[in-house]
Amino acid sequence: MVEQYAGSGFELVAVAVDAQGAKMPRPFMEQAGATFTCLVDSDNLLSKTFGFKAVPNGILIDESGEVVYQKFGGFDIRKQETRDLVDAWLTSGATAGAESSERTEVDSRVHVLFGQGLALLRSGDTIGARAKWREVSIFDPDNYVVHKQLWSIENPERFYGENVDMDWQKQQLAQGL
């Protein structure tokens, strides 16, 4: 899709949310042979801005900077319906009939605790970071973005490497962990 619209003003940008920084998602982008820009939100600023609690997300922004479509959680460009939506928007500007996710309110304590955990992680205190991020589950048990940060530190083999263990992640969510 990226190559199809080269030179048309369309730009695809991926944003990985990973508190451990760019070194963690870089191998995935290289393995996928990505030909587009991938940024890393290691501070979880996009979640704070848009109010999402899960990934992957899709946000379509027109040339004037207006958000014309957003889907938080489950946006997958590999799905034909998603490609069709993006293609229709790029060719005609239409997003009619597409379900757009609304911003959700995330308790401000979640962002405070996440930030405190991030500061601890960056200072080398992994145990303290884990404790702060576990507190998030009290205020926002459905926040996958924060769970992922915690789980990836505790179980890196399930997140980084050749095979991301999505089944394990789904089990954790189902168990409320």
| Broad CATH class of the largest domain | Alpha Beta
Rg measurement, Å: 17 Å
Order of helical and strand elements: EHEHEEHHHHH
Helical/strand content category: alpha+beta
Largest sheet: 2 strands, parallel
Strand order of the largest sheet: 1-2
Mean pLDDT figure: 85
- Per DSSP, what share of the residues sits in E-state strands of 2 or more residues? 5-15%
Key traits:
177 residues; alpha+beta; 2 domains; two-stranded parallel sheet; single chain; two-stranded antiparallel ribbon; Glutaredoxin; 7 helices
Commentary on this structure:
By secondary structure, this protein is α+β, with helices and mostly antiparallel strands. The chain folds into 2 domains: 3-92, 3-Layer(aba) Sandwich (Glutaredoxin), CATH 3.40.30; 108-174. 42% of the residues lie in helices and 12% in strands. It starts with 12 loop residues before the first strand and ends with a helix.
Brief synopsis:
This protein is 42% helix and 12% strand. By secondary structure, the protein is α+β, with helices and mostly antiparallel strands. A two-stranded parallel ribbon has the order 1-2.
Secondary structure elements and their pairing?
Blueprint: E1 13-17, H1 26-32, E2 37-41, H2 45-50, E3 57-61, E4 67-72, H3 80-92, H4 108-122, H5 126-139, H6 144-154, H7 166-174
Parallel strand pairs: 1-2
Antiparallel strand pairs: 3-4
